[in-house]
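Posting for a labmate who doesn't have an account.
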Amino acid sequence: MLLPPLNDYARDAAAYTRPAPPETFNFCDVIDGYAEDPTREALIWLNAAGDERRLTFAEIRDQSKRIAAVLHAQGITRGDRVLIMLPRIPEWQLVMIAAFRLGAIAIPCITMLTPKDLRYRIEATQPKAIITIPSEVAKFDDLTEGRAKLIVPYGGGQAQAQGWENLVSLAAGQGLDVATERMRPDEGALIYFTSGSTGQPKGVLLSAYFPRAYYECSAYWFDLNEQSRGDTMWGTSDTGWSFSLTATMVGPWLAGVRALTYDGPFDPEKRLEIIARYGVTVFAAAASEFRHILGQDIEAHDLTRLRLCATAGESLDGPTARDWMRRAGCRIHEAYGQTEALMVIANYPVTEIKPGAMGLPLPGLPIDVISEDQFTALPANEIGHVAIRMPMEGMMLGYWQAPEKTEDCFVTNALGERWYITGDLAHKDADGYFWYEGRSDDVINTAGYRVGPAEVEGALMAHPAIKECAAVAAPDAERGEVIKAFVVLHAGHDASAELAKDIQNFAKRETAPYKYPRRIAFLDELPKTVTGKIRRKELRDREYAAAKGK
């Protein structure tokens, strides 16, 4: 189902109604449909070593079927969980598609996760299979008992993977007679773990119908439609984040468009080289990446085929947007979404981009700003909760095995309207644009990563010098927000730059590296409520006030 491009946002959005969902659905049907053309290219993959692979939709179909046959032989069936921790390699897409084909629930994880992070995810979801690369198997240590252990031989370290089976070798001997499960809208397909303001990350269970919610995202935000056969879309996000799914699989492949992925360290000059060499037409990256790329000699590269850029996960500042347009020759289209609700607000090729604005709702999506008390839509320029009126196809089925936490996200007003509360505050202007006002909780959004303060604080409290601590968001020109830790020391320990560095290095070992505090301040005591709770908001407000005063 390809949607026509937007020509006039106000007119087309008002006239658009989301098609009714079919009785059953599987994203593999989309892949298999494009695979009927054996020449249609689906993926270009390259890495820092200079390796390159190209796969057609027909090859994606066949190889995913062979992997599905391996998983089925390992006992994986409908509803079973499969934990996937792979870097940006084609096998990530292939394993994800294979899991969808079987009706299994994929759990994508970034390779930066620590053994502690993985233990929590495995104990919470009880996956029947774990799939990773040899260099990562040590992280799973005693977590594999009773589970299929499969590796993709990439990046060396094969000697560490004794007792693990080679998924690629096993798949090579399989046939193609694997049935594609017919999934219902109430059945899960994905679990992404996302951080909250308290406690451990929550497992967001997305429906097998989640790709259908990307039709508008693909057609209107990425501008991919029936005229897009020659497009190449490159999304740089890590495989453990939902933006990777959006930009390297579902978004482009719904439109039959070639995706490009690159496995290698971030290098702004390399980004430009790849865009020019492969004729990338749609480029999706974090806002901080665009800022770094602007530090290069952009004009020395041929970017004439680049027609659209997209970003999400962190705020795009006006100077970066303007400089990119002037030097790269195309606009950056920012969008807003959540793992729980996917992309819901964006900027489009046919609309004005107001620097600093989140954008306008995706056509067909019932999203608004509602009041704190009555939970009804607010007039222009009043701050309230960003909320989505139910039902909405693509909305999460719930937090994994946490019905109370799920229900806490929803409210029903006196009109009988049921709303999902995102936890973000905003206002709308007279033209309907949403403007972000901040979080209603303590979640930190740093360079596109959502980090709960409790995760950071839990890691820091294991340091022998720390008596108490609080982690908050602090404004940062490059990353939007960074993690700042306020630390109270035990007696006998003195504040110093050396101790701050030691605490940072300790945090990197205790938890995923993106969660370490980039800034540390030592206090004699933390601000607290009368009941003894740390007043993180006071610390956060202090940081933002100081930044404004500069």
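Reply:
Got it, the structure tokens are right above this. Residues 57-73 form the longest helix (17 residues).
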